[in-house]
Amino acid sequence: MSAVLAASATAPGAVRGGPFRVVPGFRLSLGFTIFYLTLIVLVPLSAVFLKTFTLSREGF
Questions:
Q1: Less Cβ crowding at N or C end of the chain, within 10 Å?
Q2: Which residues of the chain have pLDDT under 70?
Q3: For the chain, domain boundaries
Q4: What is the pTM of this model?
Q5: Phi, psi dihedral angles at 41 (to 5 degrees)
Q6: Cα separation of 19 and 8, whole Å?
Q7: CA 51 distance to own-chain centroid
Q8: Long-range contacts, 14-22 (Cβ 8 Å, 24+)
Q9: d(CA 38, CA 32)
Q10: What pLDDT sits at residue 16?
Q11: What 3-state class would DSSP assign to 44?
């Protein structure tokens, strides 16, 4: 059993003291994804929402 633990501790790509990451740069790519989602979806949606406050009752 100790041979299995020793083999898993020296897995290729494993960082000493850190978890083994399958996708390197995941946090950075997630940050870019959330940033572009905000630009493409949330900013125009908030503009439409704010535009409704400038309309009169008849215009709405």
A1: N
A2: 1-18
A3: 24-60
A4: 0.47
A5: -105, -55
A6: 12
A7: 29
A8: none
A9: 10
A10: 64
A11: helix
